[in-house]
């Protein structure tokens, strides 16, 4: 009977998938009348919009701010092709661009990260990965025989860049917080002191939100005998590049320190309907990548060449709508709600960690994959995390906690399976397993 039931279920799934594929198949317009075709397309788009609305209410595990209603004001621009091809600071023979908006955005971030207008260069990217690819390419061009050093909790794009650029690299250990272990960094620098160092510094790791100690990294480089011209630092600030500058006690991200580049994702804390980001570097470096393109009558220095011209407008509009105070208010609300979630998990006897100056709460991985998909959680090993973005309300967190506690009582009802020990992953004081039932709230 079980076999028959499984076969029947497989057939049902197959039929549903076939219907779904047919529903989204691209059909020749001449196979149906104009009226029916338009009705079919509108119905499909309406259903997809309803799907997005429902799923938006249950996005907890990813670095996305889904509060984007204000960007509906820009919908008339979608009928135009806007292409910011080439260097943002150079004109071309294509006038359908938004480079004035792009420069306005770049000036804002340059001021935020404390680099003078005549000393920086940058552009609006397709997101954090492109910003990292651009920054590490600059590092490699400046120091062709340099070794890349990055922590094991760095974003996957850092290792992608190493493969693409065929860079030698060293993976550095991390502390339980996810922060780079500078003792291990020192040991590996000493072993390779004859080669320049290209350092990826995480201003907020992807999973734990750990902020690498930039000042200690610079000190370690200097103590290991690396002068300024023998190291290049790229800061992957995908999320926290728009958080730490607004917090007085947070580590300072600034070009007044000997860093080479910073990248941030604009669709994360700020919010955007499309992935996008900002890359800033020192102007004197960019000549290494700049090439004249005759048929465009401009200079190209970017990874992507033709670039989304709508994205800078989205970022520019968001910055103008929110302003410095609005962004700071969003950050403070997220910080408060992150602590609220951490405390709620702890009070329910669930292992949880929240790093300082952070909005990412790490906790034990739920046992049910359906639950994980429903709440769209991100998981690594025995850990899951929630990123408390501006769209995440206290009500959403309460619904999540109630659901988790209710389902967890079923998962562990008979005692055959026990909650995982996360002491090694997040620290003994954050673990609430049977061996460490008295994890203490650290007050962050």
From TrEMBL:
Could you say which protein family the record assigns here? Belongs to the group II decarboxylase family.
- Any idea which GO molecular function terms this record carries? carboxy-lyase activity; pyridoxal phosphate binding
A Pfam family it matches: Pyridoxal_deC
Q: NCBIfam families recorded for this chain?
A: PRK02769.1
Lyase recorded as keyword: yes
* UniProt cofactor(s): pyridoxal 5'-phosphate
- SUPFAM superfamilies attached to this UniProt entry: PLP-dependent transferases
Q: Which GO terms describe its biological process?
A: carboxylic acid metabolic process
Keyword Acyltransferase in annotation: no
Q: What is this protein called?
A: Serine decarboxylase
Instruction: Kindly give the Gene3D superfamilies that the UniProt entry links to this protein.
Output: Aspartate Aminotransferase, domain 1, Type I PLP-dependent aspartate aminotransferase-like (Major domain)
Query: Which keywords belong to this entry?
Result: Decarboxylase, Lyase, Pyridoxal phosphate
User: Which residue positions does N6-(pyridoxal phosphate)lysine occur at?
Assistant: 268
